[in-house]
Batch of 2 targets.
Target 1
Amino acid sequence: MMYDYFSSIVTGITAKLEQDPQGIHARKRYALAVATLGRRLYSGDARIAWCGVTAPFDLLNSMGVTSCFVEFVGAMLASTETAELFMQGAEDAGYAADSCAYHRAVTGAMLKSAMPVPDFIIGTSSPCTAGLAVMENMAKQYNRDLFVVNVPQSESPDAVRFLARQIEEMAGFVGDHTGQALSRNRLGEALELTNEATVLIKEIYGLAKQKPSPVDSRFLNNFGVVITLFMGTREGVDICRGFRDELRHRVATNAMDASQERIRLMWVQNRIQFPFPLESMLAEYGAKIVVDELNDVTWEPMDPDNPFESIARRILSIPFSRNADARVTHLQTLAREYQIDGAINPCHWGCRQGTGLRGIISNGLKEIGVPVLNLEIDCVDSRNLAEGQIHTRFEAFTEMIQG
Amino acid sequence: MYFLGIDIGSLSCDAVLIDEAKNVVSSSVVPTGVRNLEAIARVTKDVLEQSGISEGDIAAIISTGYGRTRVENRDGAVTEITCHAKGIQEVIPGTRVLIDIGGQDSKAIHIGENGNVLDFAMNDKCAAGTGRFLEAMARALEVDILDLGDLDRGAESDLVLSSMCTVFAESEVVSLIANGTEQREIARGMNRAIASRTFSLVKRVAREIDGLTISMSGGVALNSGVVRALRESLKTDTIHIPEKPDTIGALGAALIARERKA
Ligand code: SF4
């Protein structure tokens, strides 16, 4: 079923792109790459690994493994409005209905055999240990080996060494399961491609910061998280170039609609993944999202001569890998750089990062004069969301900002 | 010239008509019922009849509340957050924290020195601690909802209803009655439960409330037991209650209509 679904998307987008082969169409090309990855995961003939969000996908790509974080499946099921069926299945099997719905959806899909069986599993303790529990269940369910990357909450030299050693061990684990040892040359090439893509990503974010911003609320939706899956590949570089070119084009042709930007917003953590008229609702009030918390480059370029340490430093630089202060400081920096007027925190149900830090994040942003709207919604489970309530909160928030 | 504000809430539909000098000329509160268009027509007719003015004399109409987009002849729709903040400033100037507990939502609004909204928080997941909750409790206690306010007089225990889920709280009340717990102690426990929930809403918008003028609007402000429990939990001697707390949203809407026409 999922294979057919992804295949039909690939066919549909390819046909559309063929009508205008010279066009940039950044988001369409990105959607095509995502659907192609989805199709490969469900094809049954790729070597696949289910992973945690902060796994080093460039390293895995260099080893010929089709890898993906499990939350991607949760988001994808939500976007196709099929998540409820799987979440219900997980709840019926005894999973708490107020646990993170990304994981509930994935667990339900696993129980209903709607997840491709992996060759092996790589769990990461960042951004949340709830994800690790899913990985453990998955390892049991599929009788597959699990490698856990424990991410320390610090950037100290010891923490870097500790994590770098684990990454190296992980590469050994992958080699043992694929029968192909890591090639330092191929890894070096992959990291060069990561660096090439990262330069483009930085330019994308730099352009998004402009006032008025050439992005609309949807343009970079989920971008920062999903693009990590394509790191270390030429395809990843091409996707980033497409986004960069489209933004350059918008700036050059003055295509930014300043009237849609009376209020510049930051979205905290993940977006709502099921079909929901977020962007049009915001547009009604002249508001748009110019930055997402997850869209940032917090690391230095990768050093191909020192790959494990570089990867470790990258993982540790991600604010979600560290403590609450790191996240607040990062959000404050983004708020200033993007000159935002307010922030929206969905406070995703059951999420330690989302609901657990609600007050700390609000206070941190209020300290620098940025008002925060805490929604307390479920970004994956549409059964837990009342559109009218959200409408009122957006409207009241924009009225408040405009005084 | 007159200005009309209509607040269509889940339980009641309120209208306030003011003149150019901001005097309240007439007001009306009716149950919203299932057909809110009928309720809107009724309050509009009421305020016109009471004041003796004709519809043509109304210069602007602003609607608010969850049904604000249902008012067909409106000149604008504004959220209840902005309207309540505006309305309370008119009747209790200097209010910095407004607690509004209505039919099925409760909110805390932090208001700046110049009357602007600084922050707000609303109950999110259920109707616990709102008018609907009180209705269910009155049913469980077998008293009229209007008599709930004084029911806790003389109660002294530290009982707090453990559950704030309306359905579970109702069955908790039934068990307490069966155990012989006095009605006034149960009523106090219920008020303290509402107060503790409201307290966290207030703290979410204003960390320091010492010295700030706190006011309350919405139908639940008429329940003296809840107000007493709130005073205790907020550690304040005074919570200001306007004369007609259930029409503050509509008053704010009328004031905004007047401003927009100026
Ligand atoms: S939303 Fe929160 S709980 Fe869910 S996967 Fe992300 S960090 Fe973990």
Target 2
Amino acid sequence: MIRTLFRSRSRKIYDFHGGIHPPERKDLSNGTAIAAGPLPSQLILPLNMHIGAPAKPLVEPGERVLKGQMIAEPSGAVSAAIHAPTSGTVSAIGPRAIQHPSGMDAICIVIDTDGKDEWIERAGVADYTELSPGELVDTIRHAGIAGMGGAGFPTSIKVNLGDHQRVEELVINAVECEPYITADDRLMRERAAEIIAGIHILQYLLNPRRTLIGIEDNKPDAISAIKRACKGCDIEVRVVPTKYPSGGEKQLIQLLTGKEVKSGQLPAQVGVVCQNVGTAYAIKRAVIDGEPLLSRVTTLTGEGVRQPGNFEVLLGTPIRDLLVHGGVDPDNIGRLVMGGPMMGFTLHNPAVPVVKTTNCIIAATLEELPEPPPEQPCIRCGSCADVCPANLLPQQLYWHAKNDDLEKAQHHNLMDCIECGACAYVCPSHIPLVQYYRYAKAEVRQQAADQVKADKARQRFEARQARIDAEKAEKEARRQARLEANRKKKTETASAPTVDTAALKQASLEASKAYKAAVKAAKAAEADNADNLDALKADVDRLKAIADKAKAAVRDAKEAGPAAAPAEDIVGKLKKQVGDASSAYKTAVKAAKDAEANGDDNAAELRAKADELKAAADKLKAELRDAKANAPATPATAPQVDPVADLKKQVGDVSSAYKAAVKAAKEAEENGADNAAELRSQADELKAKADQLKADLRDAKANAPATPAPAPAAAPADPLADLKKKVGEVSSAYKAAVKAAKEADENGADNAAELCAEADRLKAEADHWKAELREAKASAPAPAAPKTPPAPTDTPKAPETEAPQALTAVDPEVAAKRQKRLKALKTAYNMAHKQYKEAHAALERGERNGDIPAEELNAMQQKVDKLKGKADVARDALDALVEEAKADIRAHTGKDLKTLKLEAARAESALADKQRELEQQRDSASEDTLEALSSELQALEAEAQIARKALKQAVEEQGLQD
Amino acid sequence: MALISSTSPHTTVSNNTGAFMRQVIYATLPGLAVLTWQFGWGTVINVLWAVVVALVSEALILKARGRPVAFYLKDYSAVLTAVLLALALPPTSPWWLTLIGVSFAIIVAKQLYGGLGMNPFNPAMVGYVLLLISFPVAMTQWIAPGEAPSLVQSWQLFTGQLPVDGLSGATPLDTFRTLHSSGAGNESELASHGILHGQFAGLGWEWVNLAFLLGGLYLISRKIITWHIPVGFLAGLALPALVAWLIDPVRFADPMFQILSGGAMLGAFFIATDPVSAATSRSGRLIYAALIGVLIWVIRSFGGYPDAVAFSVLLLNLCAPFIDYYTQPRTYGHDKPNRGTQS
Ligand code: SF4
Ligand code: SF4
């Protein structure tokens, strides 16, 4: 009882949205038996009758071939062989017109037939169970079998799913929903037993739980023939109501199983394999009779044909020969269609050949399929949306496609349109909707291809840049080390115990003060025409040199400060390696996915491996935590370095392991999809490791602030006050200069221009100091080296402060501070540059006017040079800072923004998937499974959280850079 | 042999947009007949006149826009607009009223927006509202039901030779409104007005509405329209009316009175169903129409106008794109429907 209930429920025919009922017109051609096709004098066999790589010719022009002899072999994984459909001589291998929407020619093998129809030796296998599945797949591949329903996908790929992919349903498509076509109908009526034998081979290969044949209810004879033939075997015949497009792969799967194939996925991913009846028949012929695919049943129909019917046509037969064979009056036909009236293509050249997918030729009169009426405006009647089997809104797609708004069209799921033509069929305004969609889809694909190209170029560039940056950083580190050593020596000889940047600064300030005073004096003397002018000027120059030197010393000290920390190097490297590993891991995942798309899967094994790796990761994490827990107990920085070094070593191991995996993956990919499972497991392994490393890194970061940081809180006050004083001085000097310049101007003094320039220079200087002050204020709370208090005895733990400081250097807070500094520097640079420009202009003006004495001009020239130098220095500093910030982000996150985004998105979708799974299983699964699932969910949630955070942070930092 | 070269599909249904429009026009005939029976020949005269005005305006503007005139006239959309607007006008309307309304509807509301399919608002209703605002008196002068003027009188009304005052009378909706706005609404007052008590609803108007219902059912049976908009419309109007009437039967008209008065059926089956300005998805249409119905009830019960089909339809035309964004169907192979314009 329960069993019958279950059976009746599983026999349910589901429904899909929309669909239409165009006039069937099948009675034109389904009344007569399949007849032999013509034996044309020439056969044209395109190398690409299937989807995938074109076959590789095995024959030369002039070579004699026998019927059934392979004349082109499959090249690459997705390809199919070609055989000579009859005996004859290869007369040419070259471009011929074929049926292609673009009207392009393609390479074909041309055979001049000899009429003898002489067979090559055939080797059939009566009992296919003697063959292993692998051998069978090979037989199918070498028999050149490709989907006979329409798309022409090589069958060997579809039946070779690997051991781990469970096929729930094998669906045999015998719907033939397009009007006019009756090829499958006749085939089923006349050769049902052979079709069933072919289905048995498919069952042997795929081992499905159920096998379903879907036939439309407008073919009662075919239904009874098939039912009779499969009596007593485990094949279920399902009669579906006549509705176009029930024969669409996804629609039929929905009709028979109620399953929906996710957008962008293959039926195999929901456990369904769909094959056409014609394909099943061809498989039987190939395996049991040893006959490769040489011919196919093609319907020749339409009111322009005198004897419409079905013909067993040799592949490569020119349509023209077939038309003559069927008695077509060429003057009486208005439209020639290859395929059905809903999805076929019009032919303009009857010389094109019949290929593996040619199921129908319609030679229609003009009255039968008239010119399409002129297109009227869309009235948004919604008829199109009512019939769309994909449940799209065709009127919206049309609107966006017409306006070239591809983004919106894609948002309305343009790419899910199956181009069935139902919408265009019902449109009262006769809008050729499908044409618009084809156009828009082609555009979208083109854009995607361009995008991929651009991405690849960018990735190459970025990789190169990263390498260069790394080299630079290394060099810089070496330089810093040298500098440090030098300075130590210097300070020792100067009997100063430590580098005291504040003192240096003081010296610098004093020097420049003296210099400025001298300048002022010189100016005054100049104004008074004093005798000792030259001596004063020399003095000025000397003082200037001293001041510059002092400034340089301060700068060096500043640069040397944050660079010395050894921990930062290790952490930075660690981070970089993590970044490398995870991005490389992503490549591996992609490779694995590609391979997966081609079939093969061993989930259980993978999961076991993943668990193993997770355990390993946990162990490592624990180790790290232990190490960290120990770190604060000891006063020195050394113990903290040790676990980090350990980690580093581990990272190295992981990344080299990963590299090996990637290499293997690539090789495997090139050799076909057989070891996809292996690739995936490797990918999982790498992912686990990358995760672990990421976690470690996070922990290390989180731990960093926890170590006692004896930051000198009172320190910043002194340099700030100094700076303030400096600013005050300089700006008062500037004001004085301005005043002097004004006076000089009023008095018509000669040196007015010079005074002006001087004032400008002073202003620039004042601005510079102001900027510095701002910067100092901004960074005051940070324990930055240049701002340590002048008394060295107050900070006995000074060396220890370096470690935490280095770690906080990658902290977002510091990044924010750096951003402020960046801004300040930018202003300073802009100012300096402006001053330089102005001075330069003044100089040029002076030169042009010629009213200024030569030496004055020289002085101006010098000033200009000086200003330029200053601007350059500012720019260099700015550049350095920007570089530093960039390197920091990279080191900090280990990846660029796009990767982060991708990661975040992936984490989110993984999370969503898991949630859905949990939802689905909530009612059915056991307690344990649920628990496992929810813990998995939590882990994913955490991961997503981290990814989100990383992304946000990086975005903020990215924003700061500019 | 000159072969046609085209993309699939190679066959289409034989009907076309013009046939769609003609069917809708035929379906208005019962309503037009009852209007004539109740209120005289004025409506027929105005319908014919409106068609002439529409064709001439459409032809002129098409010519001005450099479009093929005959091709676009054949889609019958201008004729339909004219017929619907003329059916909504009082049978006392003089020729100039129709002229202004129809030409404005065709030229401004339709063609200046880009022609058929591009107009965001229902052209007939735009014309109607223009007239209602500009000529409120002429637009509210109806004839008392059953006191149909003769053909000559109707013609004289149309040409303006006969003053309207002598013939005009209030509609049931008017009567109900005036009663309440004057504050005199009580049960005996209501009972004393015979116009409020026809066979099922308001006198005379019940038959007009039933006739339009008949035409509308024909359209549904011919699959020219789907049931979504009429059902949503009438439900949106009747349900709030029912609730309010149950609470206060004196203050509020009963639901039967509501759906059989004024332009209710004309609006539900012929006006709100204009595909160009309506929402497109099925659920979207239900929401769209229901909101029109509710709005009509609100304006009839609390607003300043006795009837409100035109205002409500125009207001919801404005919301139609928005409704569309939020009622996109779930595409095959996707977990959930798209929402909004862009994600
Ligand atoms: S069927 Fe044609 S006219 Fe109707 S909405 Fe679709 S595209 Fe527009
Ligand atoms: S062609 Fe595309 S949009 Fe039109 S009905 Fe088919 S799937 Fe829908």
